[in-house]
Every structure is written in structure tokens, then in C-alpha cells.
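Hi,

Apologies if this is the wrong queue. I'm a grad student, and the batch job for carbonic anhydrase from Texcoconibacillus texcoconensis produced an output file that my downstream script rejects. I'm not sure whether the problem is my script or the file. Here is the sequence I used:
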Amino acid sequence: MTQLHDILKHNEAFVNDEKYASYKTTKFPDKKIVLLTCMDTRLTDLLPQAMNIHHGEAKVIKNAGATIDHRYGSVMRSILVAIYELGADEVFIVGHHGCGMSGLSSESVLSKAKDRGILNETISELSSDKNIDMQTWLSGFESVEENVKQSVEMVCEHPLLPQGTTVHGLVICPETGRLDVIVSGGESLQQPSI
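Support response: The file is valid. Your script probably expects a header line. Output copied below for reference.
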């Protein structure tokens, strides 16, 4: 059974009781921030609280690992749209310790896909496609810090990034909310001791 029925029941009450009123804002981020972070459930409420970001203050992009793996992919496009169309002028890339993408192998993902009914023929066909590097596409990273650095570099080196755009890279602890700065404004920075 899916969650759809319960979600729609709740939604009807939410709309009828006008609970949406406290969420009204514009599409423009008040703090002019675009934030790329991981889809990890532990960060949903923790990350905005740890960064003092409230409703309407930032454009938030989430994906597995807070990773930019293609300079012309959807994540980079979203960052550029946030900058050019929605007024953001500062980019934050925030990975986290204990990320599920850390050490993830394509073999593990494909094995689970087979367990869920995906045929070997489908996987073989995709693996032989020259447009898809299955090993890279379904693999994670070894170091969250290095992953954040690489994503910051991808943004900073993009030919469509306007000059003067500040790009930061951070790693958050999903248990405490502590932020460690990996890259500040495009330059490596030693984290101050707290």
C-alpha cells in the first residue's frame, strides 16, 4: 500500500484549514543563496537550522551526495537558473559525514536492482551503451571533503558562472549540525577550532 491516500487526506485538511498561509513567500531567495546538499533525511530540518536559513531565504537543490557530476547536468543548470533568474549570488555546497554515497559501488546498486527484478539483459545493454558509464554513474566517492572540493571546482570553472559569484564548500555533521568549512569563496580554508 502506498502513502498517497494518507498524504491526500492530510493535504485536504491542510488546504481547508489554510495552513499554507504561514509559508507564503516569493520565488526569490531573500538571502540570495543557492544551496546544494544531500537528500539525506537527517538534513531536512537540521541543515537549515544549523545554517540559520529560514523559509524563503534560499534556493535548495538536493541530490545523492550533494554532487555535481556533469558541468551541463541538471544540478549545474539549477544553480545557474538560481543565479541568473532568481537573484542568488552565493553558492553553498554542503556534504555530510556518514553519507550513503561514501564508498558506494555500482556493483552494490546493480545487485540490488537485480534483486528487485531488473533483468541482466537490461543491465548489460545499459553497460554497453557508450553514452553511459555505469561504473562511474552509479558509484559514490571515497572522501566527502574531496567530493565537496570537486563540486566547488565544477561550479567555479563553469564558463557561464558570472564573475563575483561566491562559492563555498562545507561538510555538516548529521548528528550535531556542526559545519566544517572545506572551501571558502573558492579558496581552501583551515577550519577554526571551536
